[in-house]
């Protein structure tokens, strides 16, 4: 027993020595600040001017001080604002303890990001040169400045405005919010004295690994690497070759049977790196995540990853949160990347500065291709020395992320040509450098191309077309509006490599000085696909469908439906049969149903064996009663279980669906009273009043309560005058018919002079239902609306429930992304991106109307059944945004408030009218010949 205890003690002692030894060989991290926007640590703080200035108080770190109630807000463009307003500085103090057992270690203090100039002191002594540049990580060796075993004082002076004019021009005279403060975490890095300074890794798709291990220690003799999984388990032994070159070791090895990294299958490994002395003793051990992938930019061809040509479906993204500014969190990074992936995006551009490290980590792990960017906006770092320093900080921090494929040397003329070659000095992978907005070397990245001009420029038609910004969002414009047209062209152009929408989210800040209202600085920042808090606009779902990697050719279901769909695999690395699809045949209840829908049949769809880029077909199972269904839903999910999209296909016509919802059973007597001004029809508990002169509905009264639908149908697109109003009293119904003057068929004028006549007919049934039948003739090409409209006071609208496409409104060039089913929206008065941020917006155009129930504040409202196919419901008139620029609004809504139309307008972008964004944006509508009149058949139930 005594021997056992002795052996146990020796064993524990030995184990303890090993634990201590291993700890001594590792890097330790001690945070002085919090870790993110949701986990801050209070530091002492003094602000020089603006809010809460001139006194010592507390502030949470990391943070942007404006969002904590200090200083002054500033949306870029400092030259337009008096210097005294935005040139504040902040003083920070924080005390921390350093244990005595760190004496034999090297201690560095790391700042992940400070806006803008930072002067750091430890115990009253300077830690090093002032750091300038707001978006870059920097660190100081403070070992000799520390007091071990006792308290230490950290002091930081932060100037919001840099003393370097070049940095101010590049980073502050911008089209984005400018903040001040220590806005990213601060921590101590505790290292062995003999340690690795940094590593740069190149892991190729074929398994070849090259690593540069930088160390200033003369004791380091060699290094070795081990491939692990992300849990630290060894995957395989690596035979490592070493080559020493000045202050770095160059390692090479070959991994076998690895899984490559790409945006669809982001396979990651961990590389364990040990540096050893001449006796083989381990001095320092670190681990780095790696993804095996190879990037090639082939001139006059395309951008390839692992040998596959890529179409980038990307978006620009600011590092931003409305309540914390540039201070974010890993949780927010995950949320944003998941939303991008949900939109079927595969790429993101960092605009216009390097993001938080955790955002790149998430891009690595969830799978997004990244363009990482040096921060400039129109003006470069003209101070070349400063530019070189910042490029080093950018590349050294981010070099090992497999998600990063390309470096951006600034934005929109913000490139200093002398800096282009600096990236390669620090990048072992020698990734391509581009000039966003310009034609440079292999790529033409021109921004905001007109659909009819883009990629056809003769001087650069041999370059890869790669717009790093296109379809500039503003309010409800851009993004989804025009994307279908653009993408059809980009997808089929061999030299087009895709592009990046501007921008992911509205950059709206919660103003602590304005009662916590959200400020988007006029029309400068409401450019997002989502709102400040991630609220999804309609374009979100349009993008999701247009960029679906499973492309299903448009089709309609008719009585001879074969069950077959044409499909194209638009993945780059995934076979279509790796995805799943479910087919559901559904029926819908009417407006009074407590349950909206019922699944009649649900079956798995066998997707074909289609490699990336291949086309084929698949079939859905048709149950015996398939024609009893109202719609077919196809829901596809990817290899990670995420929904790709749900496509919906009406099976029945609107008339067929509504035939089960309404009945014309005779129940009551009808009384008709004519006066000089009105035709009054009384039936059951309802009274209908029509104009004797025009035949328009003037009033509906039920049980003595007025339902304020009136003044319709006013014709839209009709160019003839009303000729006559006829009243027919028939058995169990009354008809009021409005006849318009006849006009000649334009193509028969020289032949038989045949005449056509537009009309509307009201039919009041004995059970209180009110039918409206309309016929409209037209020319082949129409630039206005074709349909009918009514008046209804907006202030009386409470909400609506409908069967049709939804839940979002549509524009002519943003029809995709909806689903045909029963929806219900409460009234809101959101102006997209400007106010409210309540989505879906209530007001606008809604496609494929079958029926709609309007909820009224003053009455029971009404239900209207639409028996005609492909009719748009216009629900009220959206308020116009204050500054829509060139095209990001639609102002020519139909007269009245509630309309039923056959055509709707398109939506433009911040910089282009809709007509410049493709055929779907045309103001002209092609209706065909006049011998097929437009029919709109409705039934109103009050």
TrEMBL record:
Q: What class of enzyme is it?
A: hydrolase
Record's catalysed reaction(s): Hydrolysis of terminal non-reducing beta-D-galactose residues in beta-D-galactosides
Ranges for the Glycoside hydrolase family 2 catalytic domain? 296-421
Q: Name one GO cellular component term.
A: beta-galactosidase complex
* Cofactor(s) required, per the database record: Ca(2+)
Ranges of residues in domain Glycoside hydrolase family 2 immunoglobulin-like beta-sandwich: 195-293
Q: Which residues form the signal peptide?
A: 1-23
Residue ranges annotated as coiled coil are none
Q: Which residues form the Glycosyl hydrolases family 2 sugar binding domain?
A: 58-190
Enzyme Commission number(s) of this protein: 3.2.1.23
Q: Cite the InterPro entries for this sequence.
A: Bact_Beta-galactosidase (IPR050347), Beta-gal/glucu_dom_sf (IPR036156), Gal_mutarotase_sf_dom (IPR011013), Galactose-bd-like_sf (IPR008979), GH (IPR017853), GH-type_carb-bd (IPR014718), Glyco_hydro_2 (IPR006101), Glyco_hydro_2_cat (IPR006103)
Q: Which GO terms describe its biological process?
A: lactose catabolic process
Q: Which Pfam families match?
A: Glyco_hydro_2, Glyco_hydro_2_C, Glyco_hydro_2_N
Which family would the database say this protein is a member of? Belongs to the glycosyl hydrolase 2 family.
Partners and quaternary state? Monomer.
Name of the protein in its database record: beta-galactosidase
Please tell me the species this chain comes from. Answer: Seonamhaeicola marinus
Native organism taxonomy: Bacteria, Pseudomonadati, Bacteroidota, Flavobacteriia, Flavobacteriales
């Amino acid at each position: 027993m005594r021997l056992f205890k002795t052996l146990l003690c020796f064993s524990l002692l030995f184990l303890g020595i090993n634990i201590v030894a291993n700890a001594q060989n590792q890097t330790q991290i001690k945070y002085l600040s919090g870790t993110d926007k949701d986990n801050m640590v209070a530091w002492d703080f003094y602000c020089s001017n603006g809010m809460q200035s001139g006194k010592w108080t507390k502030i949470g770190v990391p943070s942007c001080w404006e969002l904590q109630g200090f200083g002054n807000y500033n949306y870029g463009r400092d030259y337009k604002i008096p210097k005294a307003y935005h040139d504040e500085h902040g003083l920070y103090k924080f005390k921390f303890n350093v244990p005595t057992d760190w004496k034999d270690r090297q201690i560095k203090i790391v700042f992940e990001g400070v806006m803008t100039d930072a002067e750091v002191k430890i115990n009253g002594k300077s830690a090093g040169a002032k750091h300038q540049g707001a978006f870059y990580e920097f660190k100081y060796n403070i070992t000799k400045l520390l007091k071990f075993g006792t308290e230490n004082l950290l002091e930081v002076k932060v100037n919001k405005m840099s003393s370097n004019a070049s940095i101010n021009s590049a980073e502050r005279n911008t089209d984005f919010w400018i903040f001040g403060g220590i806005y990213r975490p601060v921590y101590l890095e505790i290292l062995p004295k003999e340690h690795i300074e940094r590593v740069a890794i190149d892991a190729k798709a074929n398994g070849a690994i090259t690593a540069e291990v930088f160390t200033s220690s003369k004791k380091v003799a060699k290094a070795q690497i081990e491939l692990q999984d992300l849990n630290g388990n060894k995957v395989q032994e690596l035979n490592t070759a070493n080559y020493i070159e000045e202050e770095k070791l160059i390692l090479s090895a070959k991994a076998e049977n690895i899984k490559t990294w790409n945006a669809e299958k982001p396979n990651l490994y961990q590389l364990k790196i040990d540096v050893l002395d001449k006796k083989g003793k381990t001095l320092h051990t670190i681990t780095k995540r790696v993804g095996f992938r190879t990037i090639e930019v082939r001139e006059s061809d395309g951008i390839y990853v692992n040998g596959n040509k890529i179409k980038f479906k990307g978006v620009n993204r600011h590092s931003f949160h409305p309540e914390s500014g540039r201070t974010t969190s890993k949780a927010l990074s995950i949320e944003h990347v998941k939303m991008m992936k949900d939109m079927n995006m595969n790429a993101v551009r960092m605009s216009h500065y390097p993001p938080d490290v955790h955002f790149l980590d998430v891009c690595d792990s969830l799978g997004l291709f990244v363009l990482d960017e040096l921060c400039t906006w129109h003006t470069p770092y003209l101070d070349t020395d400063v530019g070189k320093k910042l490029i080093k900080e950018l590349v050294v921090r981010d070099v090992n992320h497999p998600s990063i494929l390309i470096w951006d040397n600034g934005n929109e003329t913000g490139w200093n040509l002398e800096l282009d070659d600096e990236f390669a000095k620090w990048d072992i992978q020698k990734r391509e450098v581009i000039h966003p907005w310009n034609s440079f070397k292999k790529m033409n990245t021109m921004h905001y191309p007109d659909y009819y001009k883009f990629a056809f420029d003769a001087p650069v038609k041999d370059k890869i077309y790669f717009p790093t910004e296109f379809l500039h969002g503003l309010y409800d414009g851009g993004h989804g509006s025009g994307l279908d047209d653009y993408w059809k062209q980009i997808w089929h152009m061999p030299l087009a490599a895709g592009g990046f929408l501007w921008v992911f989210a509205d950059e709206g800040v919660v103003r602590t000085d304005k009662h916590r209202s959200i400020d988007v600085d006029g029309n400068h920042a409401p450019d997002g696909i989502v709102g400040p808090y991630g609220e999804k606009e309609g374009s979100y779902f349009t993008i999701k469908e247009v960029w679906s990697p499973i492309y299903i050719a448009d089709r309609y279901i008719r009585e001879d439906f074969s069950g077959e769909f044409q499909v194209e695999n638009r993945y780059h690395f995934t076979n279509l049969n790796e995805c799943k699809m479910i087919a559901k045949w559904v029926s819908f209840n009417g407006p009074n149903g407590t349950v909206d829908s019922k699944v009649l049949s649900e079956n798995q769809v066998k997707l074909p064996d289609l490699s990336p880029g291949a086309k084929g077909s698949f079939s859905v199972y048709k149950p015996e009663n398939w024609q009893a269904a109202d719609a077919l839903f196809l829901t596809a999910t990817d290899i990670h279980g995420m929904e790709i999209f749900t496509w919906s296909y009406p099976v029945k016509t609107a008339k067929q669906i509504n035939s089960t919802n309404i009945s014309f059973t005779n129940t009551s007597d009808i009384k008709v009273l004519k006066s000089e001004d009105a035709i009054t029809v009384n039936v059951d508990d309802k009274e209908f009043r029509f104009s004797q002169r025009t035949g328009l509905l003037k009033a509906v009264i039920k049980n003595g309560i007025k339902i304020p639908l009136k003044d319709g149908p006013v014709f839209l697109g009709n160019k003839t005058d009303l000729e006559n109003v006829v009243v027919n009293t028939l058995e169990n119904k009354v008809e009021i018919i409005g006849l318009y003057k006849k006009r000649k068929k334009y193509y028969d004028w020289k032949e038989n002079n045949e005449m056509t006549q537009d009309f509307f007919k009201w039919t009041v049934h004995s059970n209180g239902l009110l039918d409206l039948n309309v016929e409209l003739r037209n020319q082949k090409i129409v630039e206005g609306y074709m349909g009918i409209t009514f008046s209804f006071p907006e202030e009386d609208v409470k909400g609506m429930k409908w069967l049709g496409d939804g839940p979002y409104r549509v524009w002519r060039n943003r029809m995709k992304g909806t689903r045909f089913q029963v929806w219900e929206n409460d009234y809101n008065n959101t102006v997209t991106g400007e106010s409210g941020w309540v989505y879906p917006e209530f007001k606008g155009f809604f496609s494929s109307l079958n029926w709609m129930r309007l909820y009224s504040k003053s009455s029971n409202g009404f239900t209207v059944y639409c028996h005609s196919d492909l009719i748009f419901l216009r629900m009220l008139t959206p308020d116009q945004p204050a500054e829509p620029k060139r095209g990001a609004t639609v102002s020519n809504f139909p007269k009245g408030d509630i309309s039923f139309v056959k055509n709707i307008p398109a939506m433009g972008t911040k910089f282009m009218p809709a007509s410049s964004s493709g055929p779907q944006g045309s103001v002209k509508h092609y209706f065909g010949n006049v011998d097929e009149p437009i029919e709109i058949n409705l039934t109103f139930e009050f």
